[in-house]
Amino acid sequence: MLSLSVATMLLSASAGFVAAQTTADSVPVTDLVGTWSTKSNSTLTGPGFYDPQKDSFIEPKHTGISYSFTADGFFEEAYYRAVANPSNPKCPKGIIQWQHGKFKKLANGTLELTPIEIDGRQLYSDPCAYKNSVYTRYKAKEKFLHYEVIKDPYHQISRLNLFKWDGAPMQPLYLAMSPPTMLPTTTLHQTSTPTPTNSKNKRSEFPFSPSALSKRSPQQLQADRWWWFGVVLTATGGTLYFFF
Ligand SMILES: *[C@@H]1O[C@H](CO)[C@@H](O)[C@H](O)[C@H]1NC(C)=O
Ligand SMILES: *[C@@H]1O[C@H](CO)[C@@H](O)[C@H](O)[C@H]1NC(C)=O
């Protein structure tokens, strides 16, 4: 009996030590807890946006951005964006991105988001140039210089202002749900290869091609590269660090 309780004590002591160690450089984030979304409130994290079983997106009705945060350091993000096409304004490109992972708040207020690398996904559609949407992995570390949670004086709901790495504000996010709506925070995929999917997307702001990613042609790969270039220029998620 005695030895058992000593063992229990030792176990809990070491568990406490580990916990203390991993949180030593981060500070509590209770004000961030919840699911936040841009005004359209139709792009939201969770099972309504990305289906990990089918490995496919459920295209939201309107473009938008959503972030969810938990008190114990997990985040999830959902992006659905249009990229203007200056050479043909009638042909915007659409991008859907999803990733999740861990985040921490540094003592000086900076937020660091580190995704689970094999889980993130992206769907890129350039309907006027390519018949197929391109479905690939997506992983981008993000940093926000600082953030603030305020009561929006006009809408009377909690509002999250995230500031990008250069200090510029992102578009405001409003509290959509608390506690947050998120997929499981653990790793969802065994391998790093996204399964090609064939989702029949409802027609909404962008005509995402229902045809699946098959083999990517050299032109599509080229388009990808240009696309990444565009992301760096138009990134809204703080400073993006690409791993590849
Ligand atoms: C907070 O600290 C990090 C890491 O040292 C640094 O990169 C960042 O610029 C600091 N943020 C602010 C707001 O000073
Ligand atoms: C946003 O959508 C969620 C989920 O549908 C809903 O619970 C919430 O009330 C909405 N928030 C606003 C401000 O409309």
UniProtKB/TrEMBL annotation:
Compartment(s): Endoplasmic reticulum membrane
Lipid bilayer topology: Single-pass type I membrane protein
Ranges annotated as spanning the membrane: 226-243
Sequence ranges of Low complexity compositional bias: 185-197
Signal peptide feature range: 1-20
Gene Ontology biological-process annotations: 'de novo' protein folding
Annotated segments matching region Disordered: 185-213
Keyword Membrane listed: yes
Main location, first listed in the record: endoplasmic reticulum
Keywords: Endoplasmic reticulum, Membrane, Signal, Transmembrane, Transmembrane helix
GO MF: unfolded protein binding
One Gene Ontology cellular component: endoplasmic reticulum membrane
Protein family according to the UniProt entry: Belongs to the ROT1 family.
Function: Required for normal levels of the cell wall 1,6-beta-glucan. Involved in a protein folding machinery chaperoning proteins acting in various physiological processes including cell wall synthesis and lysis of autophagic bodies.
Protein name (record): Protein ROT1
